[in-house]
Amino acid sequence: MLYFLIEAIKPVLVPLCFVCAWGVMFLIFSSISGSVADSLRRARRMHKIPCANCVFFTGDYHLKCPVNPKIALSEEAIDCPDYRSHSGTYG
């Protein structure tokens, strides 16, 4: 009985395994590409943090910025109202 069942599904089993294997490969590649895209998006956002170019930035890990120490080197500092560039421009 079991032998006949196995023989009956053999023609369907190979294409089904083929489709399942490529489906798993597609899911893996889409997950990897999504992770890479998310990492690039996050890196672009982090490069907008202006603290390292600010005149108030000390570089000391105890007190990175005496004006806004809570937001220094974080995403909240992207539009910091107290930012002053070393070149004298504000922005």
Question: Helix and strand layout, with pairings?
Answer:
Elements: H1 2-46
- Helix/strand structural class: mainly alpha
Number of strands: 0
Roughly what percent helix?
A: 40-55%
Rg value:
28 Å
Strand content: under 5%
Low-confidence stretches: none
Q: Categorize the overall geometry.
A: rod-shaped
Mean pLDDT: 90
Q: How many domains, as an integer?
A: 2
Series of H and E elements: H
Q: What is the number of helical segments per DSSP (H or I, 4+ residues)? A: 1
Biggest sheet statistics: none
Task: Give the distance, in angstroms, between the N- and C-terminal Cα atoms.
Answer: 79 Å
In short:
The mean pLDDT is 90. The protein is rod-shaped and about 85 Å long.
Characterize the structure shown:
The protein has one helix at residues 2-46. The N and C termini lie far apart (79 Å). The radius of gyration is 28 Å and the shape is rod-shaped. The model has no long low-confidence stretch (mean pLDDT 90). The chain has two domains: 13-47; 49-86, no CATH class. The protein has 91 residues and is mainly alpha-helical.
Task: From the structure above, extract its key features.
single chain, 2 domains, mainly alpha, rod-shaped, 49% helix, 91 residues
